[in-house]
């Protein structure tokens, strides 16, 4: 009886539903990283991917209940519009199974050095491995760890609560990252990089970019989450203060 009841709670998402869940996770991740790492507090900052925009952003946030947590998201209209533009294209690529990695890079505005790099590797179960160009220079990484081996073991079916708990654990780690990541000095900018299959349709506003790696970086592997169609691994790299 108990076994049948547990089985009835299994939330088997369609590929489209799973892609939407992952894209939504990315949107909240971008907001959470920028807030927790103090990128918003500077009076203004510049973002350059996929559009070159200058946004004057004060620390204006609102609280949204999501994943059983109070998620802080920007309430600034310009910042919201910018993230919405990113997500509009991201949703299309996710729905088409084109994305293998999303990266949020925080860069010192004063020195131009990359100080933090948040990487989310996306594995699509059963997808054939493809070359990924994803708006990166030709001499940068091409084969993404997010691409999958179609012979890999099928994922374990999970309940909706189990999936939510895994996502919740990642956001708790992002919040707790302030305890081990160096304080960001001065004004910072951020870039969003998306690794998509080489045959993806790319809007003219999106341009190729280098990987924006951090030299001699310390790396911390965070938790992951998975549905019956996707698995997302999280890694943060950072530069140690001299």
TrEMBL record:
Alphabetic keyword roster: Cell cycle, Cell division, Mitosis, Nucleus
| Cellular compartments per GO CC | cytoplasm; kinetochore; mitotic checkpoint complex; nucleoplasm
Q: Where is the composition biased (Polar residues)?
A: 131-151
The record's Pfam families line, in alphabetical order, gives: HORMA
Cell division keyword on record: yes
Region named Disordered: 131-156
Q: Which residues form a coiled coil?
A: none
- Residues annotated as domain HORMA: 16-236
- Write out the GO biological process terms: cell division; mitotic spindle assembly checkpoint signaling
Report the superkingdom from the record: Eukaryota
> Where does this one sit in the cell?
Nucleus
Family note: Belongs to the MAD2 family.
Identify this protein by name.
HORMA domain protein
Q: Which organism is it from?
A: Aspergillus sclerotialis
């Amino acid at each position: 009886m108990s076994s049948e009841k547990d089985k009835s709670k299994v939330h088997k998402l369609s590929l489209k539903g799973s892609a939407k869940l992952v894209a939504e996770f990315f949107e909240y991740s971008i907001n959470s990283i920028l807030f927790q790492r103090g990128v918003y507090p500077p009076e203004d900052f510049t973002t350059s991917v996929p559009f070159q925009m200058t946004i004057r952003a004060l620390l204006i946030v609102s609280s949204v209940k999501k994943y059983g947590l109070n998620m802080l998201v920007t309430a600034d209209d310009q910042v919201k519009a910018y993230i919405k533009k990113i997500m509009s294209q991201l949703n299309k690529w996710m729905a088409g199974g084109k994305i293998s990695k999303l990266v949020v890079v925080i860069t010192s505005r004063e020195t131009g050095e990359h100080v933090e790099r948040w990487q989310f590797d996306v594995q699509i179960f059963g997808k054939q491995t493809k070359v990924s160009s994803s708006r990166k220079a030709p001499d940068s990484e091409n084969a993404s760890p997010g691409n999958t081996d179609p012979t890999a073991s099928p994922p374990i079916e999970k309940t909706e609560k189990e999936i939510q708990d895994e996502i919740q654990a990642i956001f708790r780690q992002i919040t707790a990252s302030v305890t081990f990541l160096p304080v960001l000095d001065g004004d910072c900018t951020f870039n969003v990089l998306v690794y998509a299959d080489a045959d993806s349709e790319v809007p003219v506003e999106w341009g190729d970019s280098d990987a924006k790696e951090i030299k001699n970086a310390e790396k911390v592997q965070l938790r992951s989450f998975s549905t019956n169609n996707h698995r997302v691994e999280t890694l943060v790299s950072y530069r140690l203060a001299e």
